[in-house]
Amino acid sequence: VTSVDKANVLATGRLWRKTVSDLQARDYPDVALEHVLVDAMAMKLVQQPAAFDVILTENLFGDILSDEASVIAGSIGLAPSASIGDGAAGLYEPIHGSAPDIAGKDKANPAGAILSGAMLFRHSLKHEAAARAIERAVKAAINAGRGTPDIGGKDGCEAFGAAIEAALGVG
């Protein structure tokens, strides 16, 4: 686990670091923990994205780092996200947010929202097979050359969503 903060400047960062360290020592002593300052993390994430298994940070830094990391996948439109609480509760959404500048114009990439649904099946509903089926359908549609312009395709949101639906075998 890589915990990201700004402990060298912000009092809240120092509190975050102490809280995470205390929690790890008390409840998760077998989990390796490293602390990284957010500015260093922004650089490391681009240079060595595969070096990180779990990144733990507060909302503002998480928003920035997840947007940065989405470029590695090819587009912010592909990236799902989840805010998961105790138990089965969770909030699942694409990291790109509502994209009001393209709302209603058939331009948004639906993959992030669809993959957020896969995360819902996996984490809240404990239905791994459904999650994998959704992920495979998105991959199959992209591999078949379907997609919105942000990933090199020519489809609009509706057509790309329909291609994913067809790959899933529903509809």
Strand arrangement across the biggest beta sheet: 2-1-3
Low-confidence stretches: none
Number of domains: 2
Question: Got a strand count?
Answer: 5
If you compute it from the alpha carbons, what radius of gyration comes out, rounded to the nearest whole angstrom? 18 Å
Q: Topology as H/E string?
A: EHEHEHEEHHH
Share of helical residues: 40-55%
Question: How would you describe the shape?
Answer: globular
Give me the number of helical elements: 6
Biggest beta sheet attributes: 3 strands, parallel
- Mean pLDDT over the full residue set: 94
How far do the termini sit from each other? 40 Å
Quaternary structure: single chain
Strand content: 5-15%
Class from secondary-structure proportions: mainly alpha
SSE arrangement:
Layout (H helix, E strand, L loop, with lengths): L1 E4 L5 H17 L6 E4 H10 L7 E2 L2 H15 L6 E5 L5 E5 L16 H14 L3 H16 L13 H12 L3
Parallel strand pairs: 1-2, 1-3
Antiparallel strand pairs: 4-5
Notes on the protein architecture:
By secondary structure, this protein is mainly alpha-helical. It folds into 2 domains: 1-73, no CATH class; 75-171, no CATH class. Helices cover 49% and strands 12% of the residues. The chain has helices at residues 11-27, 38-47, 59-73, 111-124, 128-143, 157-168, and strands at 2-5, 34-37, 55-56, 80-84, 90-94. The strands form 2 sheets. The chain has a 3-stranded parallel beta sheet. A two-stranded antiparallel sheet has the order 4-5. Strand 1, helix 1 and strand 2 form a beta-alpha-beta unit. Helix 2 (38-47) runs parallel beside helix 3 (59-73) and helix 5 (128-143) packs across helix 6 (157-168). The relative contact order is 0.10. The model has no long low-confidence stretch (mean pLDDT 94).
